[in-house]
Structure to design on (224 residues):
């Protein structure tokens, strides 16, 4: 998906929910009118010596009021969700064409390079860095020392066989060891240019080439 997309299916589902709420409200109103008609007829025809039990129809009145209140609550929640989604779509649209940094292991190989940011709590005297393709196959392995803190790792797209990898989505895996041979945890983020949106789900997804990025994972944004 290379451009912004508006999800007609999502809009239809929202409209369907509103229509369903309207039908529910109409049904409860019709039932309530029928109930009042029957109640009025019963009151008019009751015997003064044997009056109707007021507790029964009072309970029914309360039930009708509770159902109507629940329908109103559902309508308000539906409206709130629609407004929230519209705001999220507007926010997501503003990222198109910009370069983002986001939490994750995948990055897009474009223009002969893929870039990740690696963050370490302490230095790793030896780190094994593996790059895998979309099928999970390791295509490139690098070994180097990594310093403590945040730093960039740029893969030049060269595989272990010396071939040039095809553009696309690749994942990184880093295993670090400190000078004492103890494991060092390495967190990864990537950077890429947002080329489009996927609006088919409940929340918009940013597309950086073939990499899918939820809004919540974005940690930074800059002009491409």
């Amino acid at each position: 998906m290379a451009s912004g997309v508006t999800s007609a299916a999502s809009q239809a589902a929202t409209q369907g929910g509103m229509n369903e709420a309207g039908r529910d409200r109409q049904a409860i109103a019709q039932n309530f009118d029928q109930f009042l008609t029957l109640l009025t007829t019963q009151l008019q025809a009751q015997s003064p010596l044997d009056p109707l039990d007021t507790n029964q129809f009072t309970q029914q009145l309360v039930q009708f009021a509770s159902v109507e209140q629940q329908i109103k609550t559902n309508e308000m929640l539906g409206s709130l969700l629609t407004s929230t989604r519209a705001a999220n779509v507007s926010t997501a649209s503003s990222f198109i064409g910009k370069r983002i940094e986001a939490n994750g292991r995948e990055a897009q190989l474009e223009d002969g390079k893929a870039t990740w940011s690696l963050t370490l709590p302490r230095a790793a005297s030896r780190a094994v860095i593996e790059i895998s393709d979309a099928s999970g196959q390791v295509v490139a392995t690098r070994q180097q020392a990594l310093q403590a803190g945040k730093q960039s790792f740029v893969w030049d797209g060269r595989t272990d066989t010396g071939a040039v990898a095809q553009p696309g989505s690749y994942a990184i895996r880093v295993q670090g060891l400190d000078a004492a041979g103890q494991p060092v945890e390495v967190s990864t983020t990537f950077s890429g240019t947002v080329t489009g949106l996927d609006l088919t789900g409940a929340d918009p997804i940013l597309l950086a080439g073939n990499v899918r990025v939820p809004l919540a994972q974005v940690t930074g944004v800059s002009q491409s």
About this structure: Residues 1-15 have pLDDT under 50 and may be disordered. DSSP finds two helices and 13 strands in the chain. Residues 123 and 148 are 4 Å apart (CA to CA).
